[in-house]
Amino acid sequence: MTRILVIARNTFRETLRDRILYNLLFFGLLMIGSAILLGSLTIGEQARLIKDIGLAGINIFGVLIAIFVGIGLVSKEIERRTIYSILAKPIHRAEFLLGRYLGLAATLAVNSVVMAAGFCLTLVVGQVELDLSLLSAVGLIVVELLVITAMAVLCSTFTTPMLSATFTLSLYVIGHLTDDLRTLGAKLQHGPTTWLLDGLYYTLPNLDYFNVKAQVAHGIAIESSYLWSAWAYGTAYCAVLLLLACVIFQQREFR
Amino acid sequence: MTPIRIEGLTKVFHVGLGWPRRVVTVLDHLDLEVHQGEIFGFLGPNGAGKTTTIKLLLGLLMPTAGQAWLLDQEIGDVASKRQIGFLPESPYFYEYLTGEEFLTFYGQLFGLNGTGLARTVDRLLDMVRMDEARRLPLRKFSKGMLQRIGLAQALINDPQVVILDEPMSGLDPIGRREVRDLILRLKDQGKTIFFSTHILPDVEMICDRVAILVKGKLRAVGAIHDLVGASAVTSVEAVVEGLSDVAVLEATGLGGAVIQRGAQAMVTLPDERAVPALLALLVRQGGRLVSLTPHKRSLEDLFVTEVGRT
């Protein structure tokens, strides 16, 4: 456990010293802040628009950080050969992988807190009432980011950073369309195709499960049972992805 | 405890995209044993399989066949690396860390912490003369500095066995000398040093034993003087002057080559036994001996012979 934390702390430090993080954070805050300006262009929808844009900003820039920093977590270590001296130490490969994941997870959490603080400030400036369901939405965004990071880590254990980014981005897009896959399968009513689409629905991550932004923006309350089930689903999905990543990484050879 | 023991270690790579994929045997049934407290030079031309062997020992690659042990613990077992220090070839480290942060991080991977680790970091920075660069990020380090900080990280756990992959490559003569001195100091501390290289003068100077690997196969292993022959003189080079053309012709009859350079002639004799005859000729013909140099078989000769024997 200690070695995982040592790797995680170093990964956290690495990401904090990466300029890409600050660039994305800056633009994320800019987008959240711009919600006030855009909100003023509407009549009667100002509060909803500020909430919508603010939550979207936290989500989009969090996803970008998760993908573009996440894909490098393992593959860049291999590419830059820094992994040689690390794995020559008495450390299990799974410890290395989990440490890298936790380090980035910590960065994403801090990043989300900073953006959420910017979002709250925007709400205050825009004279929009703060409500707890907004925090629930941010919480689920963080869970989604953790799933995406796990996908990025999994991809980066067996391929190059460029392909990892492509795979992860594709999974992210498909992950928001899994409901459509199921609907399509039901409409087609063609045995094998329906089974295939159903299989994909259950295998691929259902990222829309973490998306409660629209409800929150419209002031619809989110039930705690839904939040818990989304959290449990996200945690279980992360665990499976990381387990798979550990199995692949264990077999990996470093030529 | 045997620091390093290798039995029948083999590594085969499947390369290319075609089918069937091309099979390349990088390491072919290597048997090797490194003894306690010795400096062991692992020699071979580029592509001989030296780095592959080291990567197999450290679990970065998995053997196709064979076994190996580090301090009597089978490779692949994470615990086997507890008493091992390793410097990779052309070290690449986390360039965003400062020298001090880097060593502290690597020390923590061994479970070191607190003032004990801080003292170790200070001692190692001082040992590799990097004290002034402790707050400098690694991205600003020169190649020589990276090699030195790399050596320091290899020693962070005070290992019994130090494995160095090409520790002198890319270093200037002063840097090479520093690394040589450091290796000798480690031996004085009772550590076993196993290093790969193709810089042969360094090996001749500091190694107790060497192994020569060519195309994945072990060609020779043993103490340098046993391999090259302790007293076997392969030729004797004599520079003489004051000999007439007739005398020079007579010197040619001694079995060696003669090269005339103005008033001087360089006579290369096939072995020591021809020297008295040359001296007698000089006395008889009134010539003068300028120098007499016996040539022994060097490690380089052995290396070139073994590499050429493929």
Give a written overview of the molecule.
The complex is a heterodimer of chains A (255) and B (310). Chain A is built from 12 helices and no strands. Chain A has helices at residues 2-16, 19-39, 46-70, 72-79, 82-87, 93-125, 132-156, 161-175, 178-188, 191-203, 213-217, 224-251. Chain B is built from 10 helices and 14 strands. Chain B has helices spanning 50-57, 99-109, 114-127, 143-154, 173-188, 200-206, 224-228, 245-252, 275-285, 299-308, and strands spanning 4-15, 22-34, 39-43, 65-70, 73-74, 84-87, 161-165, 192-197, 209-214, 217-223, 233-241, 257-261, 264-269, 288-296. In chain B, the strands form 3 sheets. A 6-stranded mixed β-sheet of chain B has the order 6-7-8-3-9-10, sandwiched between helices. In chain B, strands 2-1-4-5 form a 4-stranded antiparallel β-sheet, with helices on one face. Classes of the chains: A mainly alpha (255), B alpha/beta (310).
Brief digest:
The complex is a heterodimer of chains A (255) and B (310). By secondary structure, chain A is mainly alpha-helical. Chain A has 12 helices and no strands.
Secondary structure: number of strands of chain B: 14
Strand content of chain A: under 5%
Beta fraction of the residues of chain B? 25-35%
Low-confidence stretches of chain A: none
Q: Give the class of chain A from helix and strand content and strand pairing.
A: mainly alpha
What is the residue-averaged pLDDT of chain A? Answer: 88
What overall geometry of chain B do the principal axes of the alpha carbons give?
Answer: elongated
